[in-house]
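[Meeting: bench + compute handoff]

Bench side (C.D.) handed over the final construct sequence. Compute side (W.E.) agreed to return the predicted structure before the next meeting so the bench team could plan truncations. Sequence as handed over:
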Amino acid sequence: MNTRRPLCLLILTALLLAPLAGARAQSDPDAWTTALINVRAGPGTGYAVLNQFQPGTALALLARSSDYGWLLAVAVDRGVRGWVASGYVTFRAGFAVDRLPVSDAPLDEAAAALPPETLPQYEIVEMYGAGDVVRALAARIDLDAYPLIPEATDTARRIYRQGQARGRDPRAVAKVGDCNSVGYVFLHPFGEGRYKLGDYSALQPVIDLFGASFNVLTRAAHNGMNAAAVLDPLWANPNACQPGESPLACEYRLRNPAFAVIMFGTNDLLALDAEQFDRSLRRVAVETMQAGIVPILSTFPRHLALPERSILYNQIVVRVAQDYNLPLINLWRALEPLPDHGIAADGFHLSGPLTGAGDFATPANLRTGFPLRNLLTLQALDAVWRGVTGDAPGG
């Protein structure tokens, strides 16, 4: 038995180093760090810290943990190798983290530094400062190039299966976000029977399935909340949440959902810089995936006083969805043609309905913010739910 173990470790090491051969021809690294982060001997905070990566460190990625929370990485300039938390990494355009080999194997600490002859040889054609990484990569995103309604991705299907194995409720959806995800106009009418589907009667099955969870008070959305705050126990309701529990973790424990609709940005562009928003939204996505809950991200409406900043932060949302291969609702694109971009007179809340937030039968009503968001969200839930379960429309 002992004689076979070294051979297995050698094979695993060879598999993890194999991507380096292909990496030599790349003109860009696979990813960059967005903060000062620890490099650990294994995929978790319980492993020894081997080194640290500065913000903006260019990385070659060799593997990911099964829960997406950790990445096995090599610093392309120094050859330092180890596991880093994925929430503090941003990926180059087109890089599919979902396709990395899966490993949870710790490293031999002595092997963390690769010999010079095995280092990936990159020709760095774009130089990023620590504060420019997120902006430079996000700027490549064309917000109009992404569909309004997503399909289920391979990642979503895997997360759903993992969640079902852990007992997640297939009839429950969590709402995660800010003021535009709070109140009795976002999805609530469909849990209370206050809706008219009109030409969208095909959405009745998804309402029947998730309706009971639509009008439940969420602990992960609040006026003024941003992507960092939802991870901060100081924002948690002490009457419902456990000590030290974040609003996000509290919501997931209380509701046990299989899906989460996540939209941040409106408050973030006021409270967080671009790097902080990118890092926080990635942590929200990763914690959701780790919990066995399918994240459905959404772009957000423009802030009328900050149009350019709204574009950048929406580009960050798209990059996060793209990097983790997650379903994305492109609410931004849907709202842009509406009067005042679907925004109320205050300049940042979605505009209210003319006849009711659940009324899809009145065309003019769908030219306002909340009814249109409700429609897109139901369509997205329908598409993702059917995609991860294999249910056919009308089945």
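W.E. noted at the follow-up: The chain has two domains: 4-132, 143-389. C.D. will use this when planning the next construct.
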